[in-house]
Design a protein that fits this description.
Strand content: over 45%
Protein name: ABC transporter
Shape: globular
Number of strands: 35
Distance between the termini: 32 Å
Keywords: Signal
CATH class of one domain: Mainly Beta
Number of helices: 1
Strand order of the largest sheet: 1-26-25-24
Helix content: under 10%
CATH architecture of one domain: Beta Barrel
Largest sheet: 4 strands, antiparallel
Oligomer: single chain
Structural class: mainly beta
Radius of gyration: 19 Å
Length: about 400
């Protein structure tokens, strides 16, 4: 049940939103939203030399085996293609095209070969040959925050030794692993987050905007104990001890404002949500989660009966929220915490979950399976995919 009603930082504004027509089950379609047009003025609509524009998304499952063998499963044909070899994976992050794979020596980058370009009221879809792109050096655990679009901006990386890196996505699209900047923050935790043609480094007790050359821009903004960040349709969210900063980019400048969280609940330390949506989620203690609506600039705290370890806001027409509990059950909740469906225990401790407009994909490395789940139909398992190359980490690409 909801323990705290919606608290808005500003007056509520009603926005009319639209949704793309439903695609075939094996070809999930993004949700278009004409209320905003992220990066709509960028020329090329996400196209590049050597890539083919196609009429529908080319979704696939990018998998990495325990030994570092990267493969791609086509979600239409279920054919599996070998991509190449990288280091042994420890974790994986993705913006829907690239797999940023944490290894013992840093980040290995795998191009899934398919991506979408959000043009506000419609999408463009592209594909190219999947490949291993290269590596970013670093040591220790790393927090990775990709941008909304795979062909521009920066992917932020904050390593446990205090190194803050902004990876140039336009250069990566051209096949080059190039850094906007690399900064020694002197802190052992923090985040680097994209914001248009800038990046934000949050560490210690403040967040600061940097340009692509690594020069600080403007004054630092207070953000005590930063943890967790995500790029949304509205702007970039950065978790702070007392709430979250919302960074928005306009006409080449970046502004940040604090959205204070209601008191009395455990803070958000990591965020997740369906790509391209304004509402994101975060765990809050063992039995609760946050929903942060970046349009309304408001938090909602929700309590449930299960002990959760993962939560993702689908932010679809039904406001579904997906969560994995400590017994490996995938739950589908309403925004008030009401249960709408659940699987049998299928997840393990290394499982990951990604959500698109029609399906969720849950990796279960111990069983070697990727579960495709229709979360709008009571958490029904639509099919099981078994990567022949093995499965340690995986994600959906083409989103």
């Amino acid at each position: 049940m909801i323990r705290r009603s919606l608290i808005a930082a500003t007056a509520a504004i009603t926005l009319l939103t639209g949704c793309a027509a439903e695609a075939p089950a094996n070809q999930p379609a993004p949700s278009a939203d004409p209320a905003v047009e992220p990066e709509a003025t960028e020329s090329g609509h996400g196209a590049r030399a050597g890539a083919e524009e196609i009429g529908e998304p080319q979704n696939g499952i990018l998998t990495i085996s325990a030994s570092g063998e990267a493969s791609l499963i086509d979600l239409v044909s279920e054919e599996e293609t070998s991509i190449g070899q990288i280091g042994a994976p420890e974790a994986l992050a993705s913006e829907g095209r690239y797999g940023f794979v944490t290894t013992a020596s840093g980040i290995d980058i795998v191009d899934g070969g398919a991506w979408s370009w959000d043009h506000g009221d419609h999408f463009h879809f592209y594909r190219t040959t999947p490949s291993v792109r290269g590596s970013v050096e670093g040591s220790g655990p790393v927090s990775i925050t990709p941008p909304q679009l795979s062909t521009q901006g920066a992917t932020g990386m904050f390593f446990a030794d205090g190194t803050a890196v902004a990876l140039d996505m336009a250069a990566l699209d051209e096949g080059e692993v190039s850094e906007w900047f690399r900064i020694d923050t002197g802190e052992d935790s923090g985040v680097v987050a994209p914001a248009g043609d800038h990046a934000i480094v949050a560490a210690g007790s403040e967040a600061r905007v940097y340009d692509a050359s690594g020069e600080p821009q403007g004054d630092a903004v207070a953000c005590e104990d930063p943890s967790g960040a995500i790029a949304t349709r509205v702007g970039t969210v950065i978790g702070c001890a007392d709430g979250a900063l919302l960074a928005t980019s306009d006409s080449g400048s970046v502004s940040m404002e604090m959205i204070e969280a209601p008191e009395g609940f455990e803070r958000a330390t990591a965020f997740d949500g369906r790509k391209g949506r304004p509402t994101v989620s975060a765990l809050s203690g063992e039995n609760g989660f946050w929903l942060l609506d970046t349009r309304a600039k408001a938090w909602t705290h929700v309590d449930v009966d299960a002990t959760l370890r993962t939560v993702i806001a689908a932010d679809d027409n039904d406001d579904n929220v997906l969560a994995i509990d400590d017994e490996g059950v995938l739950h589908v909740y309403g925004p008030d915490g009401s249960e709408r469906g659940a699987t049998e225990p299928i997840a393990d401790e290394a499982s990951t979950l990604v959500v698109d407009i029609q399906r969720a994909y849950l990796t279960a490395p111990e069983s070697g399976l990727v579960y495709e789940i229709d979360y709008r139909d009571g958490a029904r398992i639509a099919r099981e995919l078994a990567p022949a190359a093995g499965l340690a980490v995986g994600t959906e690409v083409g989103r």
